[in-house]
Amino acid sequence: MDPVTRVTGRAVPLDRGDVDTDQIIPAPWMKRVERTGYADGLFEKWRADPSFVLNRPERSGATILVTGPNFGCGSSREHAPWALRDHGFRAIVAPSFADIFRGNLPNSGLVPAEAAPDVVAALMRATTDDPAATVTVDVASRTLDCPAAGVRAEPFSLDDSAHHRLVNGLDEIDLTLALADRIAAHERTRPAWLPKGRST
Amino acid sequence: MATTLADAIWDRHVIERAGAHGPAGRASADLLYVDLHLLHELTSPQAFEGLRAAGRSVRRPDLSVATADHNVPTDGSRLPLADRAADRQLRVQIDNCREFGVELHPLGSPGQGVVHVIGPELGLVQPGMTVVCGDSHTATLGAFGAIAFGIGTSQVEHVLATQTIRMARPSTMAVTVNGALRPGVTAKDLTLAVIARIGTGGGTGTLIEYRGAAIEALPMSGRMTVCNMAIEAGARAGLIAPDDTTFAYLEGRERSPRGALWERALDDWRTLRTEPGAAFDREAVIDASAVAPQVSWGTNPGQTVGVDGAVPDPASFADPAERAAAERALAYMGLAPGTAMRDVPISTVFIGSCTNGRLDDLRAAAGVLRGRRVHGRVRALAVPGSSEVKRQAEAEGLDAVFRAAGFEWRSSGCSMCVGMNGDTVPPGTHSASTSNRNFEGRQGPGARTHLVSPETAAASAVTGHLACAADLPS
């Protein structure tokens, strides 16, 4: 995975709470067996409305989504981050994220930037008023900047695990495989009664 | 220091602690061993493809079990399916499981069913285990006193390759349900009432332990219903301390331990409890006797009221965000503020899913339907949660009760819970559904979902509008 140390760009303000992954990518798209090709499915139902913010020409090319609390709730589908990524988003700024979704974003190279509600509200206002307003999500320092919103070096939270992997572009599986001996040691201590599948 | 059940189980599975220095540098979160990895067709193909591309193998195919549930038609169809994309995905799953040596219960096989239903049925989920699956409703399995949670496809790939998952330790929350549920009030009503109380983000970042007399009184089916919707309260997972109800369910199951091993397992399982005095990070207390049959009115599971209630006026919400959400929800649902929930007309009824597709759920619904007929405008589906549930239901004649009432008796799968397998609710119409999510479009484009218990779904099928079983003339 390529390192992601900073995302700078224009933003799409989506001022709604509890946006669920069924809205981000409807279930029928999950019949696909690929990791890419989900751009057209992103917010498919909401985009049927020509006035929906993502349809506005001035929002084309935006790389940051600014949205409400509990973003990404519901299904664990990683197709949701894939759709956001395929559309061109690289970072999501919200007051809070649903747990599974928050974990899925960095695995697709996207940054979940959880910021204080007043900071998100300032970004929401500024990017709604000015589609050309630039937002910077500095992953390395875990801070946000948006001059148009008067936001300077405001901290956002990003757990250490996601931070480490994003900034260094690390493959988590490789990191864990280096611990194979310890995994094997744990396996030798597992109780004998634990159930097994019928491996073929 | 006294330990919670969730922390005790977590500690047993930590291979590397956050902050430790290992061969891969400083650990950024705990590395947790996974005792059981369940897989379904939707969220695993890209993970297997990733393994193949990197030349990796599955570390423990013997701790992995797969089934087909989301994409399968419930009309009895077999491969090849008319839906080419679904057909391809199911074939890819068969090929992947064969190539990597993973046990698979495919469409048409006797063990097929909704993944969260077949795991317990086989005895694969036992107290003290860690269980993951690329599906948020894996939380269901916490009912056995296990830590069970949903993961994304990249994590599925990580678990396949390493049998571990890297995750920050969640905080803990206690939801204590005191007293007893009133007659006619079910585990589904309870879990909906909890979400309405603590909110869709009320459990975010936590493992919820459900406890108290009303939880202890639930059978395993009800406990699974409660834990199933922990995710709808935002929690990582829900769990319930194992007890004699749990052990009685597990004894004699196909993959449960036997003989001396069973005795050893029991000795261990009986120690799995939150120690007296252990502190939770968050707590909520619910009075079970105050819970009424619940129906959702909006587009998230927290937007729920008692069946005696009415559609709320968005203006009644003090929080502007909640008010805006309620306005959007009512616009989508086509409901006016103040409408009595019993006045909402129902044209589709769905009984099934990982929330309410077990034998006890079908028995409860059949109990309401016996000797009654589905209303003329209603299409009603009964979809057993697994092929085994279907066989058992048929052995005791429940299929005949559903059919006589005018229900379609289907084959097992996720069906109308996920709206992608041919079973959908028509646009602009209302369903009474025993599933877990009333999100916009969840049951099909424009579908208007009301989340309810199996009893309420059955009663609504009979009356043609939202109703609880007590409303029906005896």
From TrEMBL, chain A:
The keyword Aminoacyl-tRNA synthetase does not apply. It is an enzyme of class 4 (lyase). One of its GO terms (molecular function) is 3-isopropylmalate dehydratase activity. Keywords: Amino-acid biosynthesis, Branched-chain amino acid biosynthesis, Leucine biosynthesis, Lyase. InterPro entries: 3-IsopropMal_deHydase_ssu, Aconitase/3IPM_dehydase_swvl, AconitaseA/IPMdHydase_ssu_swvl, IPMI_Swivel, LeuD. Its EC number is 4.2.1.33. Pathway: Amino-acid biosynthesis; L-leucine biosynthesis; L-leucine from 3-methyl-2-oxobutanoate: step 2/4. CDD domains: IPMI_Swivel. Residues 1-115 form the Aconitase A/isopropylmalate dehydratase small subunit swivel domain. The keyword Amino-acid biosynthesis applies. It catalyses: (2R,3S)-3-isopropylmalate = (2S)-2-isopropylmalate. Belongs to the LeuD family. LeuD type 1 subfamily. Heterodimer of LeuC and LeuD. Catalyzes the isomerization between 2-isopropylmalate and 3-isopropylmalate, via the formation of 2-isopropylmaleate. HAMAP family: LeuD_type1. This is 3-isopropylmalate dehydratase small subunit. It comes from Actinomadura yumaensis. The gene is leuD.
From TrEMBL, chain B:
GO terms for molecular function: 3-isopropylmalate dehydratase activity. Its EC number is 4.2.1.33. [4Fe-4S] cluster binds at residues 354, 414, 417. Residues 425-448 are annotated as: Disordered. It is an enzyme of class 4 (lyase). CDD domains: IPMI. PROSITE patterns: ACONITASE_1 (PS00450), ACONITASE_2 (PS01244). It holds the Pfam family Aconitase. PANTHER family: 3-ISOPROPYLMALATE DEHYDRATASE, HOMOACONITASE, MITOCHONDRIAL-RELATED. Belongs to the aconitase/IPM isomerase family. LeuC type 1 subfamily. Catalyzes the isomerization between 2-isopropylmalate and 3-isopropylmalate, via the formation of 2-isopropylmaleate. This is 3-isopropylmalate dehydratase large subunit. The lineage of its organism: Bacteria, Bacillati, Actinomycetota, Actinomycetes, Streptosporangiales.
